[in-house]
Amino acid sequence: MSVQSVLEQRRSVRHFDSSYTIHPETLTSLIESASKSPNGNNIQATRYLIIDDPDLRSALLPIAYHQQQVIDASALIVMLGDYQAFEEDNIIKIHEEGFQAGFFDESLRDYLANAAIQYYANKSDEELKLELARDVSLASMSFILLANEAGLQTITMSGYDSAQLKASLNISERYLDVMVIAVGKGTKNGHQTVRHPVQNIIYRNTITSL
Ligand SMILES: Cc1cc2nc3c(=O)[nH]c(=O)nc-3n(C[C@H](O)[C@H](O)[C@H](O)COP(=O)(O)O)c2cc1C
């Protein structure tokens, strides 16, 4: 299926077959492909916390305001950004791996690593949070497209109490929870949704009032 077809057909699905399980290898494969998404300086800050334990999901139900997909979907993926990815050690290690793999020479390794270190050096907490939100969101969309291509359905969720979710899953302040994706076999199509006419969302060269 083309990317365009997947995008045209995808809906947020809120009703799932609670007896359907996704093989761990399938999820791993989807995540491996999603990890190829573009990400700032290739620091690879996105982490995927898979929640398939029924007790954990029951505990999350009230935290996610009783959204039924929390227990009926095959798995929840808590999409996390890892603040440790900004550390010099990680940046140097990733560029060394690229060098060892033969993807670039020593001088490009050092140039890219130093540029990345400088890029993050003076960023505020808010700016770093935005960096994580960007990277994790791109990986999330890739995961959603890949899951749909594989015949699965998804819903993206921010409708949960972040502090309670982090506490109940022992997620430390090292991580930013960007969103939760429920994935599984839908039993009811998501309702159709409208979009603005495309000419109403495009500016060209300057911002004009639409
Ligand atoms: C970041 C994000 C968070 C969302 N959180 C929820 C949620 O908690 N519960 C829910 O029912 N839908 C949630 N949605 C789904 C949106 O309501 C849905 O994407 C939107 O209405 C467009 O519908 P569509 O995805 O079917 O095209 C969320 C979507 C996004 C992108």
Describe this structure in words.
This protein has 210 residues and is of the alpha+beta class. It has one domain (3-88, 120-200): 3-Layer(aba) Sandwich (NADH Oxidase). Helices cover 44% and strands 16% of the residues. The chain has a four-stranded antiparallel sheet with strand order 2-3-5-4. Strands 1-6 form a two-stranded antiparallel sheet. The mean pLDDT is 97. Bound molecules: flavin mononucleotide. Residues 11-12, 14, 67, 155-159, 179, 190, 193 line the site of flavin mononucleotide (FMN).
Question: Which SSEs are present, and which pair or pack?
Answer:
Elements (H helix, E strand, L loop, with lengths): L2 H7 L5 E2 L7 H11 L11 E6 L2 H10 L5 H4 L2 E8 L5 H13 L5 H16 L3 H25 L3 E5 L4 H7 L6 E10 L1 E3 L22
Antiparallel strand pairs: 1-6, 2-3, 3-5, 4-5
Bound molecules: flavin mononucleotide.
Q: Would you summarize the structure shown here?
A:
This protein is of the alpha+beta class and 210 residues long.
The chain-level structural class is alpha+beta
List the ligand species.
Answer: flavin mononucleotide
Percent of residues in β-strands: 15-25%
Oligomer: single chain
Question: What brief labels describe this structure?
Answer:
single chain; 210 residues; NADH Oxidase; binds flavin mononucleotide; 6 strands; two-stranded antiparallel ribbon; four-stranded antiparallel sheet; 44% helix; alpha+beta
